[in-house]
Protein: Cupin
Amino acid sequence: MPDGPLRLLVNRYVIREGANLPWHLHPEQRYAYVESGSIRVEDERGNSQVYAPGQTLVEQRQVVHRGINLGQGEVSLLVFDYVPRGVHTNTVVRTSAP
Structure:
């Protein structure tokens, strides 16, 4: 966790059927709970893991990765970001694939 006072950001993200998220990274700690659907998370190192409803992802910090909706229907994620005060986002999108 970051040093000092933290802010908890809670958001729900819905990933459309067949969608691939852009390559991105998280500077601070992020957790995601899979509410529905199946998602594969792959990183720039070639690692890949599939998550299903009821599972929690502990996302890698400072590692470029992306999510891919594997199933029919939407993926719904409840996302928790722990960031320093004054920070309003925890995602940095890459402009090109790794």
User: Anything to note?
Assistant: The first strand starts at residue 6 and ends at 15. The CA atoms of residues 5 and 53 lie 32 Å apart. The chain has one domain: 6-93. The radius of gyration is 13 Å.
